């Protein structure tokens, strides 16, 4: 689905991603793991076209998308839930979802009922302002908004961060449903091992901007964890 070949990214003089290679397979949940500051969010933003790369290739369904704008990437059905959610706090829940609908690749005009089936709390709170929702509800809204574009590929940047356990498990169930039932490909940036192990199929561990380990999630060994993930 997505193949990244030897990308290098810089913030000014600061070299952040180093010859990074990665492959994300269709219909699977691939966890991107690593300690704070190793480049996980930078990688997500590079895929979304929010940050430029110096060199390397981003092949999405075999087509090089590295020169496409972020707007065009939404049109090719890549959904993105950034760290920090970035919902519109002054707009209602429904209006936030309608912003996602505007980029729907099938040109639908209404929020699909399926979104509310996945996140019933959003139906109850449809008229409430985004900013008045709890952190967990905002995270659900951010995921729901990304699903309104009807993505084939969804990037979730630390969706479980700072969220209460019952909402984390609901989000996990949604990830399972998307990959197993809807064949949506998920890239999950995640630091929590139990969550990654439960919902991930594959993993990549990044350290100082490079991939240091990867494989199927059951190959994520204690040795890798000790070397590259524990603090
Ligand atoms: N806008 C920026 N300008 C300069 N340096 C930046 C910028 N954003 C991030 N960095 C640096 O790039 C490196 C990678 O940051 P990034 O946010 O991608 O890491 P991360 O793995 O997502 O971390 P975390 O788990 O804490 O979110 C860090 O050293 C960070 O300080």
TrEMBL record:
Q: Which Gene3D superfamilies match?
A: P-loop containing nucleotide triphosphate hydrolases (3.40.50.300)
Q: Which PANTHER family match?
A: HIGH-AFFINITY BRANCHED-CHAIN AMINO ACID TRANSPORT ATP-BINDING PROTEIN, HIGH-AFFINITY BRANCHED-CHAIN AMINO ACID TRANSPORT ATP-BINDING PROTEIN LIVF
* NCBIfam families per UniProt: urea_trans_UrtE
Protein name stated in the entry? Urea ABC transporter ATP-binding subunit UrtE
Q: Name one GO molecular function term.
A: branched-chain amino acid transmembrane transporter activity
Please provide the record's keywords in A-Z order.
Amino-acid transport, ATP-binding, Nucleotide-binding, Transport
Regarding protein family, the annotation reads: Belongs to the ABC transporter superfamily.
What highest taxon heads this organism's lineage? Bacteria
Q: Which SUPFAM superfamilies does the annotation name?
A: P-loop containing nucleoside triphosphate hydrolases
SMART domains the record matches: AAA
Look up keyword Membrane and say if it applies.
Answer: no
**What's any GO biological process attached to this entry?**
L-amino acid transport
List each copy of the ABC transporter domain by range: 2-231
Q: Does the keyword Transit peptide apply?
A: no
Which Pfam families does the annotation name?
A: ABC_tran
Species lineage: Bacteria, Pseudomonadati, Campylobacterota, Epsilonproteobacteria, Campylobacterales
